Please model this.
Amino acid sequence: MDTTPERISARTAAAWTVALAVLGGITGYVWDGPFLAVACAISLGGGGALGSVLSRRHMIATIREGQGRAAALGYADGIADMMVLGISAYRAAVFPLSGPDAVDSAERRARRNAAYRLTAADGLPHPVRAAAAAALAAIDDRRDDESESALAELMKTVQEQRHEA
Model:
């Protein structure tokens, strides 16, 4: 099924036109018989069609605006989630549960670079970037407890940004 705004608008216009024509026909028939039924069906159906045509541009613009806003929010949410995951992976490489020698320096650098690249992505709100910078600074300085609380604060900030949008 084609769900482009143009097709949605055309289907909506057709449905309103038919519904109004039927309503006009029934009302005219009840009031005065078949002649008034035809006249009311034509006038209400024509009015519905004219109204749909005149409001079509506005409807399509509104639908496209909503689609654009939803896409931007979805992109920002996805990038923020990936950034949290990347920073968590970097923290796990810096503070491995198996001991300080469990992860080699090349893997640490690779995870650090990935975390910084994700933090620099376009579309992230400033509060999320600031919380990510605090988490990365704590991890870079090898402050385990502070990095854990900074990562928790980052996750909280990402959730707050998602609920504000």
About this structure: Helices lie at 5-32, 34-94, 105-119, 126-140, 144-164. The chain has a mean pLDDT of 87.
